[in-house]
Write a structure and sequence with these properties.
The protein is of the alpha+beta class. It folds into two domains: about 1-85, Alpha-Beta Plaits (2-Layer Sandwich), CATH 3.30.70.940; about 100-145, SH3 type barrels (Roll). It has helices spanning about 1-5, 50, 70-85; strands at about 10-15, 15-20, 25-35, 40, 60-65, 65, 100-105, 110-120, 120-130, 130-140, 145.
Length: about 150
């Protein structure tokens, strides 16, 4: 599908991950899409129908009723990551109440908190600081789940 989009003049990117696959007589490293069934496209609103009409395209990924937008900087990070590592696994972040998270930006950057409840695009996070519990409404994309396992001995 990526090549069909490029034939139409659509700037597209399908992040490929190097993985080991067993063939009948040997192991081989092959490339597979990092995000199954996803191809990133850089288009204007007027080009959406052209992309949808491409063989193999089902639809765009939507977030809050609009096509999801990935920043160019995030695409560059994915590209650099794939150039540096092999055998990568991609898992969607599943945040639920009581999940411990780290805040990645804003005045609470690098602070940890616990999700109290989920809202549409934001989550209510409880941040314990200076003897008070602060509650902030933070965009989900600005959170990283903290793996409690790495803190155990």
């Amino acid at each position: 599908m990526n090549s069909l989009l490029k034939e139409k003049g659509v700037q597209s990117y399908c992040p490929l991950n190097k993985v080991r696959r067993k063939w009948s007589d040997r192991m081989k490293v092959v490339e597979e899409p990092l995000f199954k069934s996803y191809v990133f496209v850089c288009i204007g609103e007027s080009e959406m129908t052209n992309v949808r009409m491409t063989n193999g395209v089902v639809n765009f990924v939507y977030w809050l009723g609009k096509p999801a937008v990935i920043k160019e900087k995030e695409i560059e990070i994915i590209q650099k990551f794939l150039n540096e590592y092999i055998l990568i696994e991609a898992h969607p972040v599943n945040v639920q109440p009581d999940t411990k998270v780290r805040i990645n930006g804003g005045i609470f950057m690098d602070k940890e908190g616990v999700i109290k409840r989920l809202l549409n695009k934001k989550v209510e996070v409880i941040i314990e600081s200076i003897g008070y519990t602060l509650t902030a409404y933070i965009d989900r994309s600005n959170l990283t789940v903290v793996d409690n396992k790495q803190n155990r001995h």
